[in-house]
Each structure stands twice: as C-alpha cells, then as structure tokens.
Amino acid sequence: MMKMVMRRMVFLVFVIFGVSLVTFILSHIIPGDPASMMAGQHASKQAVEHIRQQLGLDQPIWIQYVEYMKGLLSGDLGTSIRTQNPVIDDLANYFPATLELAIAAFIIAILIGIPLGIVSAVKKNQFWDHASRIFSISGVSIPVFFSGLIAILIFYGYLNWFPANGRIDMNINPPTRITSFYIIDSLLSGDMIALTSSLQHIVLPALVLSYAQLAIITRQVRASMLEVLSQEYVRTARANGIHGYNLLIRYALRNALVPTVTVIGTSFGALLGGAVVTETIFDWPGMGKYVVDSIAYLDFPAIMGFTLFISIGYVLINLMVDVTYFILNPQMKE
Amino acid sequence: MINPQIVTEAKEKNTKTHPIWFKLKHNKMTTIGFLVLFLIVCLAILAPILTPYDPAKINVAEKFQGPSLQHLFGTDEVGRDILTRILFGARLSLGVGLLVIFVAACIGIFIGAVSGYFGGIIDQIIMRVMDMLLAFPTLILAMALTASLGPSLHNAMMAIAIVEIPIYVRLARSETLVLREKLFVKSAVVFGIKPIPIILKHIIPNAVSPVIIQATLDVGNAILMIATLGFLGLGAQPPTPEWGSMISTGWKYLLDYWWYPTFPGIFLFLTSGALNLIGDGVRDILDPKSNR
C-alpha cells in the first residue's frame, strides 16, 4: 500500500505542476487588460503603465511564468484585484464556510443514501425500490439551481421554516472563532443562540447540495448490494441462519461499500462544482461565492487561485479515496 | 426435479440475447424518457408555429403577468411570453448540447486514435495532457475557461467541449490499442498506406461505436453545464432565450413572481431527466451486471 501511496504522491506533484500551468495559460489569454481594469476607467496612461510594471505584465511571458511558479511555491497566489487582499488570505477566510457546507452535505448524503440503497436492493422491484429509483434519477438530472429554487420557494417563501441566506442571522454575533466552523465553535463556546441560528441556516443549502451526491450513492449502493446479495457466501451465511441486520450490514454491506467509495470519490468533483452554485444561491460566504463575485470583476488572480486550490484539493481527496479503497478491500493488499 | 429458479434464470438469460431495440422498448423507464424527449424535440422544432408571440419582443404594458390562458406560463419583467422563450430556449439547449458533444467526440476520437496508434512519446505527451485536464473538477475548469475567454455562449460551448474531450480520447485510445494489432490494420501497413489514412479509414470507423454510446450519455450533462454557466452569468447573455440565463434573471423576482424562474427550470429538469432515463436504459443493456 505504501508503494501505491508513494506513486500517487509523485503523480500528485506532476498534477499540481500541470494544473498550475493550465491556470497560468488561462490567466494570460484574457482578452481584457487587467492593468487598465485595476487602474479604473479614468486613469491616465502613465498610471496604467505603472500598474502594469507593478504586476510584472511588461515582462516576457516565460519570466512571468517563472515568477508565478516562484510565488506558488511560497504560497503566493497573487493579489485579488477586487478585494486588494492576497488571494491566499481570501481563500483561507472563505474556505471554512465551504468546508462546513460540504461536510454537512456529505453527511446527509451518506446517512440517507446508504440506507435508501439497501432498502431499494432488499425490496427490489417493490414500491420502495421504485420510489427510491425515481428519487435518485431526479437527483442526477436536477440542476442545483433548480432544486435550490424549489427549496427556497417552499421552505422559505411559503412555509418560512428555514432562512435562505447567509451562515447566521444578521443580528446574531458569530461564535468565538476557534475552528471557524460556526456549528462547532458555537457548541464549544456554549453559545446556544448562535448554534440554533447557524443550524437553521445550513439546513437548506446542505440539503440542496447533497441531493446529487445522495442520488449517486443510493444508485451505487443498490447496484452493488444486489450483486453481493446474490453471491455464494451470502447464501451460505443465510443457510447458517444469519439473517436480518447481521446479514445485511456485517456480511453484505461491507463488500458492497467498496465500489461505493470509488463512486463517492469521483462524484466529489461534482459536489465542488455544486458548492459554487449553492453558495451563490444561498448567499453562503464561502469560496464559491467568492469566485463568482470575482468573475464579475474579471479578477483573474482570484479566479485562478480558486481553481488551483480546488483542483489540488480534488486530487488529494481522490488519493484519500484510493487509500480507503485499499483498506476496505483486503484483496488489494496482495 | 427441476429447480424453478434455474428455469427463471434461464429465461432471463434468454431475453438478453434479443436485439438492443427490443430491450430498450421493453424498459418502461426508458420508454418514458424517449416519450418526454420526443415531446420536447417536437415543441422545439415547432416553436414558431405553436406560439403567436415573439421571444424577443418587449411589451412593458404586460410585464409580470401570472399564468393565464393568454400567457400559459406568465410574462417576464419586460412583458415577453415565458412559454415562448422556453420553447425557443429548447431549440438552443438541445442544439448546443448536441453540437458541443459532437465536436468534443470528433476531436477526442481523433486525438485518441493518434495517441493509441503511434504510441511512444506522442502517446505519453497526449495522455499526460489529458490527465491534467481530468485533474480539474469539470464544472470548475469550464468556469475558469469561460471566464478567461470572456463570458458568452460561444466561449461557454468551447469550454464545455474542451472539458469533455479527455473522456473520448481515453475511450478511442483504448479501442485503438486493440485495433492496431488486428490483421486488417497490419496488412494496410504492409501495403504502404500512411498512418493518417489508416487512422481515418481503418481505425476510427471501427472505434466509433463506444464513442457514440458515451456521447449519448453525455448530452444531458452538456445541457446542464451550459445552463449552469448561463445561470452564473458566464454563458448565454440576456436577452438570448437560454434556460439558465432566464432562471438567473428570474431569480431576482423569485418570491414575488414564482413562475418566472420556475417554468424554465421545469423544462431543463425534464430534458435532462429524459436523457438520463434513456442513458440508464442504454447502460443497463451494455452492462449486464446492472441489469437486474
């Protein structure tokens, strides 16, 4: 297993290099001129020229690339044109909100998706199976912004059960900053008002974001449970009088989870894409909203910093998924 | 005694030998998918005949009217008929989805065939570039690409095509690796035919079917991505009647005039749902494991 991890780490270095090359190329084929964008509409030619020199845009392209890579290696993603902060600081500021939302969505997807898949497989071709299949096919077909729209219309506009913007009520102070996760922080500091408010705020965006993942997990668990349940060892276990919970969870599910883990990993990219849209819809102050706001300003350091950050995260998650796969599947140990 | 389970299993196996079309027809969900898609395609083609309104004509006097007999889905902020715009949007979404996947598949299959046929350093370079593209989450790479090229429908289409290419390259490459060793290809080489004509005439026609299947599975996805980019303001710009950008504009009026963003959303959902149902049917047939 160590060998596999090592090989993947080498690959990771290569991928990070490649990804940074792609983002560099992208930020240099911009049709607009970032220097004049930054200087503003009424700036003089000299001012624009000055900024261009400051940004190093008057240098030949390969020197710019060397500078860019030097910056990257020391954790410098450039300065955001919109907020005037270093991009890395901005991302660090917005990252916890995104992570909190993604984890919440992920937990919902697993907690509902796995049982639903099992029920669907056990009650194959019965009512619950059909219901859960329709539920999951809608999950992969519905765009995040449409499920978000329905959620807001019903649960905010009509029923008014949950708020639909931000992480916490405007009139409530965020909890003392410890982990930057509002829910955990308010628990740790015993701030019940902040806890209720932040829990209420996360419900709708987390549900909306989890739907696609949920659908994919349900589908995969159903398929692999059906496969596992028809295998000899399950039949033997049944013949030996093992049934119900024990048979399904301890004997069948463990093996059915192996392909599911891979599917969860590959669908994580979609979750990240979905997070961008979800945050925009629910005014969630995370990286996704940050990047969408930056796009309107043609703030390329911010956009490319975000893209690079997310891609590296994505590659790391896939590595974790592979390691989990090895742990779950002893056959792979050779 | 014959075990009845063996008999039913044998029967099930027997049905698997029927032609693809027979199986597609006998899958209820797939049939529903085909029907819905057929309906949407008809609506899109017949759009100018079906509606008396102009999708672009502004009529401020009739703005924000709720659903009624004159305007089944109501009107938008400048009094355009929403149903009309949805129908014209269907033309755009379906057309763009097909076009993007067609372009991506054509480029992908060629690159993949070249990569697999020549092997060696060319193969290495091409596949590493593809790995690089696959390292990005698709929507986020498409966003970054469109942002760099400048927000417009054309650039969004180009970005999605680029994002989709690696899938086809991989598929075509693995097919080519098998075909390259076949006798008819080897004899073509012996006859002195140059590599590119071999790729075009002998490899690609034989590698095309898995690519076509993958392409049908991807059209729905491409339509969703175009709409998502439109929603984020990166794709089609208003006043183009594109579903994503209609929903984006309508979003501002969501709580007062719910019908404005809701109906385009329903159509988008139906279209991608229908394509997914069909895709599921196709996948069930090709992968007997999932067909239980």
Automatic annotation (TrEMBL), chain A:
Protein name: ABC transporter permease
Keyword Transmembrane helix: yes
Location(s) in or outside the cell: Cell membrane
Database matches in Pfam families: BPD_transp_1, BPD_transp_1_N
Major localization class: membrane
Family recorded in the similarity comment: Belongs to the binding-protein-dependent transport system permease family.
SUPFAM superfamilies noted in UniProt: MetI-like
Membrane topology label: Multi-pass membrane protein
Annotated ranges, domain ABC transmembrane type-1: 95-321
UniProt keyword terms in alphabetical order: Cell membrane, Membrane, Transmembrane, Transmembrane helix, Transport
InterPro entries xrefs: BPD_transp_1_N (IPR045621), MetI-like (IPR000515), MetI-like_sf (IPR035906)
Positions of transmembrane segments: 101-122, 134-159, 198-217, 256-282, 302-328
Automatic annotation (TrEMBL), chain B:
Subcellular location: Cell membrane
Membrane listed as a keyword: yes
Sequence ranges assigned to domain ABC transmembrane type-1 in this UniProt record: 90-279
UniProt KW keywords: Cell membrane, Membrane, Transmembrane, Transmembrane helix, Transport
Residue stretches spanning the membrane: 32-50, 94-118, 125-147, 212-236, 257-278
Keyword Transcription included in the entry's annotation: no
A Pfam cross-reference name: BPD_transp_1
CDD domains listed in its UniProt record: TM_PBP2
SUPFAM superfamilies with a match to the protein in the record: MetI-like
UniProt membrane topology term: Multi-pass membrane protein
Main location (coarse class): membrane
Family: Belongs to the binding-protein-dependent transport system permease family.
Name recorded for this polypeptide: ABC transporter permease
Source organism: Terrilactibacillus laevilacticus
Taxon lineage: Bacteria, Bacillati, Bacillota, Bacilli, Bacillales
